[in-house]
Amino acid sequence: xxxxxxxxxxxxxxxxxxxxxxxxxxxxxxxxxxxxxxxxxxxxxxxxxxxxxxxxxxxxxxxxxxxxxxxxxxxxxxxxxxxxxxxxxxxxxxxxxxxxxxxxxxxxxxxxxxxxxxxxxxxxxxxxxxxxxxxxxxxxxxxxxxxxx
Length: 149
Hints:
The chain has three helices and five strands; from the N terminus they run H-H-E-E-E-E-E-H. By secondary structure, the chain is α+β, with helices and mostly antiparallel strands. The protein has a five-stranded antiparallel beta sheet with strand order 1-2-3-4-5, covered by helices on one side. Helix 2 (17-31) packs parallel to helix 3 (81-148). The model has no long low-confidence stretch (mean pLDDT 84).
């Protein structure tokens, strides 16, 4: 019975030499923060570009095509669907990770701004309270002087 479960266990996908090479290029590009990631999710198109390295990758998810472009060459090939899905998964994960970083940064900025605004309002209220106390004190002194006369 144990052997039957091993038989149904999904074997990991083994990529061809060129697929491994392309996957390596794409993952290295994703590690570099200067690589832009753009996508048209409805059209199933994903774009990676690194201007510093003069390198672009276009992934057409619906057609299972990956195009690699550098300053001299542009090569587009159709690949195995599972391979393209794995590449897209890596791209989407990195895009999501970057979006979380931006979200966290924006959230921190908003929290700091709110804290500064809160502190400013507290200071402003304290200053107004001091002014009111001074006015009340002046009014009391003035009214005492008037009552003495």
